[in-house]
User: What shape does this take?
Amino acid sequence: MSRPIDQKNVEALLLGVPETTVREMCIEALRRWHRREPTSNVIQMHGVLGRGVIPQLLEYRNQTSTADEQNQLKEPFIDAQHEAWMTPVVEFIWWFVGAGFATPTAFAGGNLIDMRLTRRGAAFLDAPPDHPMLPGYLARIAARCPNLSDSVVDLLSDAGACLDHGLRRPGIVLMGVAYEVAIEAVIDSLIARTALLPVVATQQAALRISAIRAVIDTVLPGTTPQERDDRFATKRAYDFADDLRRRRNDGSHTTPRYPFDDPQEAEEYFVSAGRNLPLIWRMA
Assistant: This one.
């Protein structure tokens, strides 16, 4: 049971912290716990989440406290979930559950006491930093694609929201549309530089990707090992774009060739999309 003073102190620590930052702290707390105890799968709201988030909040505020004080500050994570100031933490908890990373297992007085990590959740906590469901995914992509159009970012954001809620089919479709918008911009740029004929802009998506791929050697010349590697990577990126185009078509038709029931497939597409988009965009 948390004391009123502990609740007030946690409230002060959370006050004004951006929601995305709180989510980052919660994920980092779980990742650290999972590294320490890779065989454990029970996440206690105070013993795992609270104990992991409080030190990060103190560091964020440039404050220090004793181990005993931190032990008290973790308690509101289990019995103050109804408080408005705890909303970012509670919303993280239910996002984590809704994403299929954990299942709730015990409640007391309407508060979630603990949840059980799923195999998918364990894989998420082990994932590299470019996982699409980690905070900052879009910011990292945009930083690697100078002048990337807002429409592409908006479409990727919508696709990511679908993934957050387990909507894999529309997520992949929207991701495919984002890539198509980006490729249209690449084509416009290449036409303006006379690297492509204007007719390419009127062709179907598959032919447009093929047309860009055919001029990569011309647009990215050079004989050094790095330059050759860059050309090879760019060609592979357009191969991925074509694969995503076909999968997007699967999702847009009434009789898709393959179902969209595999969450790992969707996550892999998002990871690959983030890694390949800068290579797609470098042709612009």
In short: The longest helix spans residues 225-252.
